[in-house]
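Lab manual, section 2.4: Encoding a predicted structure.

Procedure: take the sequence of the chain (334 residues), apply the prediction step described in section 2.3, and record the output as structure tokens. A sample record is shown.
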Amino acid sequence: MTTFKTLLKFSLVPLIGIALASTHANAREVTGIAAKVNGRVITKNELNYHLTPYRQQLNASMPRKGPQYNQLIGKARNEILDNLIERELILSEFRVRTGDRQFPPYAIDQEIDRQIRTLYNNNKSEFNKALRQAGVTPAQHRRETEKKLIVQAMRSQQFKNATPPMPREIAAEYNEHKSKIRDITGDALEYHKIYISKTDSSDPLVTPQAQLNLAEDIVARLKKGEEFAVLAKEYSVDSYAEDGGKVGKTKRTDLSPAFAAILMETPTGEILGPLEDTRGYTIVRLDKKHFGPTPPLSKVKNRMESRVRSRKNKDKNDRWIERLKSNAMIEIKI
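Recorded output:
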């Protein structure tokens, strides 16, 4: 399963898969407020949008929920709220410095064009499809792009006199993170699966709890060495059962975002599951991953340089954020 740290690291950017609602101080009743920063509202709806990708993966991978699930969700929610507060502090500083001036629209257009070009192979229909799958409107995405650019510009201003990163540092940053900046719409997977339905229309005694128990028992048997294909033919109820559960090369975009993300983070050959969806439980053995194309360093050099600069100037950034906090009115409502 994708770790929360991984998701959080890339969550407060307008890449598809994470959406945000608009944030107007007078647009939500008090019960819908997660926090206020200098009078600006961070809504619970906004917080939940950021939490959704992680929650979806956790829901799928932990069908029994329980105390550990609640602890992980709580920790994720608190860390996301801290990041949203920090972002709002920077946006507030921008408004003070510029008199609430609008960020240049052409710069937002250029950034969205860059995303379409580098993340979706210049295919706008794929970009729009990804927006729809994530439940993000073009207007929401544009607002988030503007916020991202403002924060980037403000951070760059803070570090403008810092020693610039060395070429070897930029190259090392690229090599470490290039898998995360690839075009994930080009990902594909090969795997085996067993699907256990939660109910059986021909047998009213079949319950979701009993089927979950069955799925967990099958996982245990697989881990002890029983043949996947044999158990798939015996228990699986989908169209792949006759082939021993074998699923051929499948585009990531043809799978649910949560399911695809979990599989892409799973080591090849590992037995995974049971994973829960609304209708049943899936057991998977991942056979092979195919990764989408990664842009060359020349195309993302500025982004890598910015990451290196931010890391090298972490202490200075922390002092800046603490100063903004000390001069701000912050109210946490949850």
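Check your result against the sample. Confidence is low (pLDDT under 50) at residues 2-30.
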